[in-house]
């Protein structure tokens, strides 16, 4: 296992980048703790795979350094970094059996035969392929081959880091939960440093100790699932995490008051915010009301999703989502919304502003 340090790291695919916009990966300075499980989460094209490939040695960064436990490995080849990497699409040896594929990394390191047998059997159980160990990989389905790729990454217990680049893309949906659970168990059992790239928030939030949210080549927040949900550091985090995502309202901020349209909202704390100012409120903290004070709103539809109801509203021409309890009755005369104060976040130019008492 290794602590991974990203020191002044940035990358451009252009030979002579002239501005920040020319960088696919904008400057990063982060320490990722030894033995923690991280998920790199963001939309396609945000820089997730670029960062992972720099850490693995498949790509040399335009600037900065990568260190494993303080040792500079920026230009070291992948083989010298002692990592295991699983890619989005399966990479297997078709002429080998499942058993031989799983054993291959261990045989290359001259491991004792009995230990190879033990580890292969354990991993085969984890990926539910014990009954196919002696079958050739050729002819297996894509999801079966990807399970072999996952198993080959998990079979080594001495790696500095395990890197996964959207490894469950080709896996049948009913198997995804099981494999995520097994990866989490592997992490708990052996304490590998794990980095898991995904655009799926469910995968990220159920797998990782810390989620690294990327947007437009930047890391905009690193935090636990609870931190990302309750205090999104950037409006993109609020939008991307949660279903539905956070509602954003253009607002004028004056101390502890936000002005949304013609309505004043008490923020509970005082804020100093300049630039493009907004307040963000998750659907769980929207309060529906009939008459009285609040922001004028009109119900467009109600979606019953089993666990709760999603109320879609029109607020001054903009869509807003609220969440109500499964057993709640939604009156037809709802015409205003208000916010639970503990659920309001203030943003200036998309970045969260801390309040003060």
Distance between the termini: 43 Å
Task: Tell me the count of domains.
Answer: 2
From the spread of the alpha carbons, the general shape counts as globular
Strand proportion:
25-35%
How much is the average pLDDT? 90
- Give me the CATH superfamily of the largest domain: P-loop containing nucleotide triphosphate hydrolases
Question: What does this entry show, briefly?
Answer:
The protein is of the alpha+beta class and about 350 residues long.
Overview of this protein structure:
GO terms for molecular function: ABC-type ferric iron transporter activity; ATP binding; ATP hydrolysis activity. The chain is of the alpha+beta class and 357 residues long. Helix content is 24%, strand content 35%. The protein has helices at residues 48-56, 98-108, 113-126, 142-154, 173-190, 201-207, 225-230, 235-240, and strands at residues 4-11, 25-32, 37-41, 63-68, 71-72, 83-86, 161-165, 193-198, 210-215, 218-223, 247-250, 252-260, 263-271, 277-281, 286-289, 295-296, 298-304, 308-315, 318-325, 336-339, 344-348, 351-353. It has a 6-stranded mixed beta sheet, with helices on both faces. Strands 2-1-4-5 form a 4-stranded antiparallel beta sheet, covered by helices on one side. Strands 11-14-21-22 form a 4-stranded antiparallel beta sheet. Strand 7, helix 5 and strand 8 (193-198) form a beta-alpha-beta unit. Helix 3 (113-126) packs across helix 4. The protein is globular, with a radius of gyration of 24 Å. It starts with a strand and ends with a strand.
């Amino acid at each position: 296992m290794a602590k991974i340090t990203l020191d002044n790291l940035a990358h451009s695919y252009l030979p002579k980048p002239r501005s920040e916009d020319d960088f696919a990966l904008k400057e990063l300075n982060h320490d990722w703790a030894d033995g923690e499980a991280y998920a790199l989460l963001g939309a396609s094209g945000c820089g997730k795979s670029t960062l992972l490939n720099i850490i693995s040695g498949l790509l040399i960064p335009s600037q900065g350094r990568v260190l494993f436990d303080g040792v500079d490995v920026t230009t070291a080849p992948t083989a010298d970094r002692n990592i295991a990497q699983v890619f989005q699409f399966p990479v297997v040896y078709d002429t080998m059996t499942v058993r031989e594929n799983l054993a291959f990394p261990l045989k290359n390191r001259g491991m004792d035969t009995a230990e190879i047998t033990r580890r292969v059997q354990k991993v085969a159980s984890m990926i539910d392929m014990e009954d196919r160990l002696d079958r050739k990989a050729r002819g297996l389905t894509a999801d079966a081959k990807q399970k072999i790729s996952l198993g080959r990454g998990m079979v080594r217990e001495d790696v500095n880091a395990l890197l996964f680049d959207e490894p469950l893309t080709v896996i049948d949906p009913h198997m995804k939960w099981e494999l995520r659970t097994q990866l989490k168990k592997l992490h708990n059992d052996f304490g590998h440093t794990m980095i898991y790239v995904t655009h799926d928030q469910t995968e990220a939030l159920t797998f990782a100790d810390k989620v690294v949210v990327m947007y437009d080549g930047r890391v905009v927040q690193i935090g636990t699932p609870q931190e990302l949900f309750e205090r999104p550091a950037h409006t993109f985090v609020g939008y991307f995490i949660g279903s539905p995502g956070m509602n954003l309202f253009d607002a004028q901020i004056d101390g502890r008051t936000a002005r949304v349209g013609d309505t004043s909202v008490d923020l509970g704390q005082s804020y100093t915010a300049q630039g493009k100012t907004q307040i963000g409120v998750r659907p769980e903290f929207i309060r529906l009301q009939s008459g009285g004070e609040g922001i004028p709103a009109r119900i467009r539809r109600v979606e019953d999703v089993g666990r709760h109801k999603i109320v879609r509203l029109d607020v001054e021409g903009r869509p807003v989502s609220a969440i109500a309890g499964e057993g709640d009755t939604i009156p037809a005369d709802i015409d205003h919304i208000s916010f639970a104060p503990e659920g309001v976040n203030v943003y200036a130019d998309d970045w969260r502003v801390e309040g003060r008492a």
